[in-house]
Amino acid sequence: MSERPAAGLLLEDGTFFEGGAFGARGETSGEVVFNTSLTGYQEILTDPSYRAQIVTMTYPHIGNYGVNPADVESAAVQAAGLIVREACDEPSNWRASSSLDAWLKRHKVIGLTGIDTRALVRHLRTRGAMRGALVTGEVGRERLQAILAREPAMEGRDLAAEVSCQEPYVWTEGLTRLAGEAALRPPPQRPLRPYRVAAYDFGIKRNILRLLVDQGCEVTVFPARTPAEVLLAQNPDGVFLSNGPGDPAACGYAVSNIRALIGRVPLFGICLGHQLTARALGASTYKLKFGHRGGNQPVRDNTTGRIEITSQNHGFAVDADTLPPEVEVTHVNLNDGTNEGLRHREHPLFTVQYHPEASPGPHDAGYLFARFRALMDAHR
After folding, report:
1. Out of 45, 323, 360, 371, which could bridge 327 as a Cys pair, Cβ 3.0 to 4.6 Å?
2. What is the pLDDT of residues 181-216, one digit of tens each?
3. Catalytic pick from 12, 27, 340, 357?
4. Is 355 an active-site residue?
5. Strand intervals (E) in the chain
6. Is the pTM of this model over 0.70?
7. What Å distances lie between residue 50 and 45, 53, 93, 123, CA to CA?
8. Catalytic residue among 292, 331, 347, 355
9. Known catalytic residue: 88?
10. Is residue 173 flagged as an active site residue?
11. Which domains does the chain have, with CATH numbers?
């Protein structure tokens, strides 16, 4: 490995880390967070929910299987930067088309390696996620402080409109199953008549769209600010409310549109879609200390008593105590008791905080897409 240029990270509380640069050169800033997944760095970096965040991977060796065009969750790298203990320069995998370093360079995303990521993560767990500035080359504190001063706090930021599509589009691609996977995860039987699904794009991941197609859905994706009446004019069998970045309290337009849809069409929401739906029902949301990000979060399904190991990526949560009586809490996080799911007792509506599309992550919660299909069946 050749010697790397210098790179440094300054957190808003003054904590400083210096290491080596990989990926692009320059400067960036964002909320510094951590993800506990062992794999899936490419899906994580292209997940729009990571917009304006610098992602720290807790697993120490990142980049060993490279990157490939099939595993992206959007058209671009969405994260503001990447921090790892050791960046692998020579990947080895039959699917790889590029190294992580070269891929980050193409997308103009800065990486920091060679620091004690355990110390950084312990600091974030103790003090909470916070803004940070990351630079390559000259890493003087004065330069870093000037960059950090320009970075707004995550509270109050509407990032969903920033990452959303600009025009509606139709998605037709289903899940790609590698050799042998079809036997373990056979495609669901397609219905005689496809389900017409309108999906709000607050930062939607492609694997969500693939799994909707696998359930027999014809999916049209709409920009985040599209009025509810435009979606209803399509006469959909159901409406999907996607994941996305930022503060749900800043997305009043989305809350109003979801409120207009409740009771008129079956609804299924994930992550930000869950939070926005809760707000549309009259509940409040709040910022978590350091969020839930990784592929190993235990969640209890209150309706069955089963425990699911789930993929998660969120920094805000629903205050379950503010939900109205007609809304049932269906899922709870076993690590900290936070709300992970809800459903309406009268209207065809359910949402979850975590990511059943599992990209990356376990497949325990894949049944939720079949549940959405059954909900649409019951209301056709």
Report:
1. 323
2. 777 778 888 888 899 999 999 999 999 999 999 999
3. 357
4. yes
5. 6-11, 16-23, 27-35, 53-57, 61-62, 81-83, 86-87, 110-113, 130-136, 169-171, 195-201, 217-223, 238-241, 267-270, 285-301, 307-318, 327-333, 339-344, 349-352
6. yes
7. 7, 5, 26, 20
8. 355
9. no
10. no
11. 6-149 (3.50.30.20), 160-378 (3.40.50.880)
